[in-house]
């Protein structure tokens, strides 16, 4: 079932169908397990801005199993984080701050076994700890999804070339970092920022690549889903918990005053 899940996620990306996911930042397998039962198409495990360790990621992947596809945003777009996360059994990776064609090519190369790349060979959870080694090795190059983030104006300026890099399956926009790189931190509705985002969108569409967007709520992501962004990341586990608890508390406080 794991291999089927891994294959299906990359196929779904290529199909362009909307995929709705949410972000996992808490280092507790139970949190991800609960979210996996909701019905999301995928879970975004954030190893860049959260405290998730490799051990946390493994525990989460084990708890979620084949319920839903788990894609890991790496701590950095480098060889060691890529091979570690893939060996743990992630169906795909999201590489942050990929600003040049050379970086994009490296991310793909580090994600693919020879002769398509230079991914290191080891015995990890993805390989059934060695018991399913041959089977995994035969399928990994075709099935592992590679997504890179466009979150700097430098990436936008060469996006038409980045989207043509063989092996890239999608681009995830990082609107806040992008706005910061333009000297307009947090002003994601600024015309210069939206123009840059539109350039990325058009480049992805012309190359038939998936394009993703993150927002903390339905309201935040709705315009992008309607526009044609298909890799949608909505909400964060901490906000799901905090907002639900806050709503419950406020409701009970209101009742207690009646």
Report the sheet-strand fraction: 15-25%
Helical run tally: 12
Give the helix proportion (percent range): 40-55%
Helix-strand sequence: HEHEHEHEHHEHHEHHEHEH
What about the largest sheet? 8 strands, parallel, barrel
Broad shape: globular
Low-confidence stretches: none
- Oligomer state equals single chain
Cα radius of gyration in angstroms: 19 Å
Helix- and strand-based class?
A: alpha/beta
Q: Count of DSSP E strands? A: 8
Report the span from N to C terminus. 53 Å
Side-by-side strand order of the widest sheet: 1-2-3-4-5-6-7-8
Mean pLDDT level: 95
Brief summary of the model shown:
The chain has 258 residues and is α/β, with parallel strands linked by helices.
Explain what the structure shows.
This protein is of the alpha/beta class. It has helices at 2-15, 29-36, 54-64, 79-88, 101-111, 133-143, 153-157, 159-162, 175-181, 191-206, 218-227, 237-256; strands at residues 19-24, 42-46, 69-73, 92-95, 145-150, 170-173, 210-215, 231-236. It has an 8-stranded parallel beta barrel with strand order 1-2-3-4-5-6-7-8, surrounded by 8 helices. α1 packs parallel to α6 and α2 (29-36) runs parallel beside α3 (54-64). The chain is globular, with a radius of gyration of 19 Å.
């Amino acid at each position: 079932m794991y291999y089927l899940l891994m294959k299906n996620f990359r196929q779904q990306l290529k199909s362009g169908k909307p995929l709705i996911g949410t972000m996992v930042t808490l280092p507790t397998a139970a949190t991800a397990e609960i979210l996996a039962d909701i019905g999301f198409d995928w879970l975004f495990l954030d190893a860049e801005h959260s405290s998730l360790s490799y051990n946390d990621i493994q525990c989460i992947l084990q708890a979620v199993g084949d319920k839903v596809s788990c894609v890991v945003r790496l701590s950095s777009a480098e060889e060691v984080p890529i091979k570690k996360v893939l060996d743990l059994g992630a169906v795909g990776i999201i590489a942050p701050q990929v600003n040049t064609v050379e970086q994009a090519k490296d991310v793909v190369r580090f994600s693919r076994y020879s002769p398509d790349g230079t991914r290191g060979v080891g015995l990890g959870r993805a390989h059934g700890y060695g018991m399913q080694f041959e089977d995994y090795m035969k399928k990994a190059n075709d099935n592992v999804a590679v997504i890179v983030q466009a979150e700097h104006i430098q990436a936008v300026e060469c996006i038409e070339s980045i989207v043509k890099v063989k092996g890239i399956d999608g681009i995830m926009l990082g609107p806040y970092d992008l706005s910061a790189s333009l000297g307009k931190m947090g002003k994601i509705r600024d015309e210069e920022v939206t123009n840059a985002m539109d350039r990325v969108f058009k480049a992805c569409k012309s190359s038939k690549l998936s394009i993703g967007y993150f927002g903390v709520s339905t309201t935040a992501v709705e315009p992008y889903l309607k526009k044609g962004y298909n890799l949608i990341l909505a909400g964060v586990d901490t906000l799901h918990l905090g907002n639900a608890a806050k709503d419950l508390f406020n409701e009970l406080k209101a009742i207690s005053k009646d």
